[in-house]
Amino acid sequence: MTLKSYISRIAWVALLGLAMVGTTVAQSYPYKAIRLIVPFPPGGGTDLLARPIAQVLSEILGQNVIVDNRSGGNGMIGADIVAKSPADGYTMMMATSAEVALNVAVYSKMPYNPERAFASVTQVAVSPLVLVVPLSLPARNVAEFIALAKERPSKLSYASGGAGGPHNVAGEWMKLLAKIDLTHVPYRGGGPLLADLMGGHVDSAIAALPVVVEQVKAGRLRVLAVTSAKRTPALPGVPTLNEAGMPGLDVSQWWGVFVPAGVPRNIIIKLHAKIVGIIKLPNILARMTALGAEPVGSSPAQFHDFLHEEITKYRRIVKLTKITID
After folding, report:
1. 290 vs 285, which has greater pLDDT?
2. Mean of the pLDDT values across residues 112-130?
3. Dist CA 212 CA 45 (whole Å)
C-alpha cells in the first residue's frame, strides 16, 4: 500500500466515523430541553398556537419544550436568535409570514436571510386577517365603514400588529383600493392591540383572527370582512374584502415551524412527523378551529417552496402600496 492510498483510507475512515457520530446524535435526539422561540409577546395569535403544540410535543419527546417569547423588530429579534443558534435541533421557532417573508420586502437591511438562515419543518396553520371594529363605531359593514372614513378623512384609525407586518400591508392595500385615508396605529403584537381595541382607543384594526375570535363570538367586537381570497369556515357569514369591492386583495396570516439551517435531516424529519401528528389531534384541531385557524401540515420541501412564493408576493404588494420602514 502506498503512502497516498494509506492516507486516503485513513481520511475515509475518519469521515465515516463522523457520519456515524452525526447519525447517533440524530437518533438519540432529544436528550435535553428544546426552546421554541415565539417572536411576539404572550397572548398574541402566534403564542396561542405555539403553547398547546409545545405542551404535547414535550409529552411525546420526553423533554421539555419551553416557549420563549422574544418580541420586537417586527419579529426579527426572535428570528435572529434562532438564525444564530447552534444547528442541533434544540432551538425552534414558531414563525409568521412577517419575519420570514414580508420583512425582506419592507426592510432595506435584515440581520439574516430567511431563505438561507432557516430550515423549514412544516407550515402549521393559516388564517385570514380580519377588519374588526368596536361596537361603538357606527359601521355594520364594509360599505358603511368606507363611507364613514370618507366623511372623516384622516380622522379614523386602524391598528395593526406592527408597522410593515402583514396586518399593515393589508390595511394599506385596503386604503389604496377603497380610496380612503386612515391613520395607522402599530402595536407590538396582538395582545396589546386587542386591549386597546376593546377599550375603544382605536377605531378599527386589521388583526389576526385568533387574537379577536373569542371577543367576536361573544359579541364584544364586530368583524366587517376577512382579508383572504375566500371566506373562512370560522366565520362563514363574514364576506371577503374582494366581495366588498376590493378585487385582488388577498393577505392571510400563517404560522410555521423553522429551525436553524444545518440541522441534521434526521432531526427535521422527526420534528416534522411529531408536529404534523400533533396538529391532527382532535383537541389541538378543535383549539385551532376555535381560534379561526386552519391546520396545514405541509412537508419541509413544500413549506420551503411556499416561503419562496410568499417572499415574491410580498415584494410585489409592498411595491404597490409603497410601504417602507427604514
Report:
1. 285
2. 95
3. 9
Given this model, what pLDDT does residue 290 score?
80
CATH topology of domain 128-226: D-Maltodextrin-Binding Protein; domain 2 (3.40.190)
Q: CA 15 → CA 43, 134, 280, distances in Å?
A: 47, 63, 40
Under DSSP, is residue 199 helix (H, G, I), strand (E, B) or coil?
Answer: coil
Cell numbers at 135, concatenated: 361596537
Q: What is the pTM of this model?
A: 0.80
Q: Give the integer Cα–Cα distance in Å for 63 and 276.
A: 18
Reduced to 3 states, what is the DSSP secondary structure of residue 166?
Answer: helix
The Cα–Cα gap between 302 and 284 comes to: 22
- Per CATH, the number for 9-127+252-321 is 3.40.190.150
Tell me whether the omega of the peptide bond preceding residue 30 falls within 30 degrees of 0, making it cis.
yes
**Predicted confidence (pLDDT) at residue 320 exceeds the cutoff of 50:** yes
Instruction: With CA atoms as reference, report the closest residue to 43 among 145, 258, 188.
Output: 188
- Residues 94 and 37: their CA atoms lie apart, in Å, by 6
| SS3 at position 2 | coil
Q: Do domains 9-127+252-321 and 128-226 have the same CATH topology?
A: yes
Residue 55 has pLDDT above 50, yes or no: yes
Q: Show the CA angle centred on residue 50, arms to residues 130 and 220, nearest 5°.
A: 35
